[in-house]
Specification:
Elements lengths: L4 E3 L4 E8 L2 E10 L2 E6 L3 E7 L5 E6 L4 H14 L1
Antiparallel strand pairs: 1-2, 2-3, 3-4, 4-5, 5-6
């Protein structure tokens, strides 16, 4: 995973992530406990942050658990 990261004050995040052996730009829009994820303009998913600190993908293209965890970590550490 790569740590290139850009955070804006409006709940939007952009960073790179390794996915399917490629380095892709990941755009995340956070609305409360919901993360709207867009990878490489063709992979979309929603991740729900749980009260116990875990993250669960609720819809969209299936992401590996390691990617869900990485996205959660990037957003929460930079919030």
């Amino acid at each position: 995973m790569t740590d290139s990261f850009k955070n804006t004050t409006d709940g939007k995040y952009e960073f790179t992530i390794n996915y399917s052996e490629r380095e892709l730009t990941c755009h995340v829009v956070r609305e409360g406990d919901t993360l709207h994820v867009h990878l490489d303009n063709n992979i979309n998913a929603e991740i729900e942050l749980q009260p116990d600190g875990t993250a669960v993908q609720t819809s969209g293209d299936e992401l590996p658990a390691s990617s869900v965890e990485f996205i959660k970590k990037q957003v929460l550490e930079q919030a």
